[in-house]
Write a structure and sequence with these properties.
This protein is an all-beta fold and 450 residues long. 1% of the residues lie in helices and 50% in strands. Strands 1-28-29-32 form a four-stranded antiparallel beta sheet, with no helix packed on it. The chain has a four-stranded antiparallel beta sheet with strand order 8-9-10-11, with no helix packed on it.
């Protein structure tokens, strides 16, 4: 029996901070190790010293698994793991590496790397088996010959598979690779849009991030002092609606970081040693939060923590800057230049690179299992507020009216016709109500072969 498993999530508001523990451990700079619970604490034991390329990953309970500077991969005992040296990343590739757990297989972790300034080692991946003694079982497999220094990831619309996004070194091509339970699809989705890069080495310096819901993607072109904002389709892997923020609101100086607020309403932009900006995505308006104009305070790297604060890295400094109230307009955002002391350790250039989907915590969703022999679908509803009322509605796109199909939290429905349908789930209790809606394609029935 052929089945397709699709997990659907669309969120109207966020209530909790659960399911983020994969980002609990930050290892970066000169042996800096921060461990987050409700707030960060300093830990000792890191053996890594790097320049600006850092990535780490923890398990779902927050236990450290792996960390890297692009060259070497260290385990939780802080020794390099078996076959964990000679990776094709580079410690000077700005956001040039990231760890991603293979969907539905916590034992396999993929490590994606980009070369420094787009050099010929290219965009590669390696596979680490962390069951038992961690070891690299596949190493430096090339996917793209030349690319910018940044790699970013977000969940597919099914909330299971993972998109891995990079940009070409020459031209204006975005590559979206899909990682599934079966491995990496080496044939990427490509989108040609936006600024055309000419292929110069220093021009390849860049940083990028997805919004936590995967709807937006920001890319900074460091040497040109430009920021770009695009829409991203989590179903197809296609980028669209390119906006050059530099052209829209004036050129920036050297651009060294960007990250989205937890509620994905704001994009925070880091200007090296000069300013922190907040860009309101809905109103398309930019405001300055912190103005330094210092040639000494060189800020390189900004990242969100489990505690819903933004941390700013300064080169060779013993403290991090901290932004609070980041889900509010710029007037309420509070910034402390020396907001968190690093003790005896020093930062360098940049902070760890994470899959931003780990910070996305919906309050309502549903998943479904489609059986293509007779087009019957099992639906399951989920919520975080103990809903007592459950309403399911369906309509055929472009021609149908809404009709009720169930008032149960879980049920099975058989579609009698092919086409594209919108199915929405409404959950409520007292004055709390949320809705999740998604398009489902029903194809001709598949004949059973045996």
């Amino acid at each position: 029996m052929l089945r397709i498993y699709i997990f659907i999530v669309f969120v109207l508001h966020v209530l909790s901070l659960s399911a983020q523990y994969e980002t609990s451990n930050w290892l970066f700079g000169n042996k800096v190790w921060l461990q987050f619970n409700k707030s960060p604490v300093i830990k000792l034991g890191s053996k890594m010293s790097g320049v600006e390329n850092y990535s780490s990953i923890s398990d779902s309970l927050g236990n450290l698994l792996l960390y890297s500077n692009g060259y070497n991969i260290y385990g939780s005992n802080h020794d390099t793991i078996i076959n964990g040296t000679g990776l094709f990343g580079d410690e000077s590739s700005m956001m040039g590496s990231i760890f991603v757990t293979r969907p539905k297989n916590d034992s396999l972790i993929y490590f994606f790397t980009n070369d420094y300034q787009g050099h010929s080692r290219g965009f590669c991946y390696s596979i680490i088996n962390v069951k038992g003694i961690p070891r690299v079982i596949a190493k430096n497999i090339k996917l793209v010959n030349f690319s910018l220094e940044c790699v970013s990831t977000t969940k597919h619309a099914n909330e299971t598979d993972i998109w891995i996004a990079i940009h070409s070194k020459v031209g204006n091509t975005f590559y979206s690779f899909l990682l599934t339970k079966d491995g990496i699809n080496i044939c990427p989705v490509t989108t040609d849009i936006g600024y055309i890069f000419m292929g110069g080495g220093i021009e390849s310096q860049s940083c990028a991030n997805f919004s936590h819901n995967g709807k937006y993607y920001g890319l900074s072109h460091i040497t040109m002092g430009q920021y770009y904002l695009l829409d991203f389709d989590k179903r197809t892997g296609i980028f669209s609606n390119f906006i050059n923020l530099g052209d829209k609101i004036g050129d920036f100086e050297v651009t060294t970081g960007l990250v989205f607020s937890k509620n994905d309403k704001y994009l925070y932009l880091l200007e090296r040693g000069l300013n922190i900006y907040q860009y309101d995505i809905n109103k398309q308006f930019l405001n300055s939060i912190y103005l330094s104009k210092s040639n000494i305070d060189l800020a390189v790297g900004i990242q969100i923590g489990i505690d819903n604060k933004l941390y700013v890295n300064y080169i060779n400094d013993s403290s991090l800057g901290v932004l609070r109230n980041i889900d509010s307009s710029y007037l309420k955002v509070n910034y402390t230049r020396k907001g968190f002391a690093l003790g005896a350790a020093n930062s360098r250039n940049g902070l760890p690179n994470f899959n931003q989907s780990y910070f996305y915590t919906p309050s309502i969703n549903y998943n479904y299992e489609m059986e293509c022999i007779n087009n019957s679908i099992k639906f399951w509803g989920y919520d975080t507020f103990s809903a007592s009322v459950h309403q399911w509605e369906m309509r055929k796109l472009a021609s149908g009216n809404w009709q009720s199909i169930s008032t149960s939290k879980n049920f099975t429905y058989t579609f009698i016709d092919t086409g594209r349908y919108e199915v929405r789930y409404i959950a409520a209790i007292n004055s709390i109500q949320d809705t999740v809606s998604k398009t489902i394609a029903i194809y001709p029935k598949i004949n059973k072969e045996f």
